[in-house]
Amino acid sequence: MGNILDGKALAQEACKGIKARVEALRNIGVVPTLAVILVGEDPASQLYVRSKGKKAAELGIDARQYTFDAGLSQDALLSKIDELNQDPGVHGILVQLPLPAHLDTGSVLERILPEKDVDGFHLYNAGALLTGRPGFLPCTPKGIVHLVKSTGVEIAGKRCVVVGRSNIVGKPVALLMLREDATVTICHSRSQDLGSITREADILISAVGRAKLITADMVKPGAVVIDVGQVRLEGKWQGDVDYAPVLEKAAYITPVPGGVGPMTIAMLMENTVEAAEAASRNA
Ligand code: NAP
């Protein structure tokens, strides 16, 4: 029987340090401030935005929410971002994804100043990650690395398999694991015989969004299994991993909910504090 990697507890621990940094900033008159833009009424996006606002309030970060109806024009959204870019009181800007289909997500994300891009999705920050330069790391991949490190399992030299190649999870987490000296393989919807690849993984990270895609026979005994998937099925959140049988086989596994999700929010808070610290140094 494996160990459950408690993302909630790890996030709480991380938040203690983040709160101390917020207090240090407040003591010099800087209130770390995050602007969150929500376009439309997607219930999942509304829930994520609420969770981020709640966590920010707990830590003393000012989270300002800007909500627009789904018909918002591209120009109006870009003007809002320009205004927030120019506001020295705003340290981080987050546009909740997905945006309605008529909006061009790429150009919206690239309008955010890289130094306020606390989600780490701007091309500059993506390039910084690729080339090993300083920049904001995307929150979910950053949280995943913390989760893996919390096991105490050495990453260097291990086989890491990432299932999923999105720009926000799969690709960046693969790069981060490479930075940690793992030997990394990335799988996707066209990969053949997925199980033969995942069975080689000492560290298996699944970021697909398909319930029970990863079954116990696809997991190496003693592996660290990180389940990023979040699917709403029959009124319950489920991950990509067939949890109970894989828990029997793996050394560590993240639950859904309560694994990657809380760490993602904690890392967003950390990035916001980093942005505020950098702005106060440069003021
Ligand atoms: P995405 O953009 O839809 O990407 C999914 C990836 O999975 C794609 O690369 C796709 O391959 C691959 N895929 C689809 N079917 C597959 C299959 N049968 N075998 C292997 N690979 C397959 O999703 P995402 O934004 O990365 O998110 C992935 C999941 O993580 C979602 O459930 C999302 O809700 C969750 N998530 C959770 C958090 C959190 O904080 N907990 C944060 C972000 C995302 P192709 O590229 O070939 O299409």
Explain this structure.
- This protein is of the alpha/beta class and 283 residues long.
- It folds into 2 domains: 86 residues, Leucine Dehydrogenase, chain A, domain 1 (Rossmann fold); 122 residues, Rossmann fold.
- 44% of the residues lie in helices and 16% in strands.
- It has 10 helices and 11 strands.
- Strand 5, helix 7 and strand 6 form a beta-alpha-beta unit.
- The radius of gyration is 19 Å and the shape is globular.
- Bound molecules: NADP nicotinamide-adenine-dinucleotide phosphate.
CATH topology of the largest domain: Rossmann fold
Q: Helix segment count?
A: 10
Question: In the CATH classification, which architecture of the largest domain applies?
Answer: 3-Layer(aba) Sandwich
Oligomer: single chain
Number of strands: 11
Major sheet description: 6 strands, parallel
Q: What tags apply to this protein structure?
A:
single chain, binds NADP nicotinamide-adenine-dinucleotide phosphate, 10 helices, 16% strand, three-stranded parallel beta sheet, Rossmann fold, 283 residues, 2 domains, 11 strands, alpha/beta, globular, six-stranded parallel beta sheet
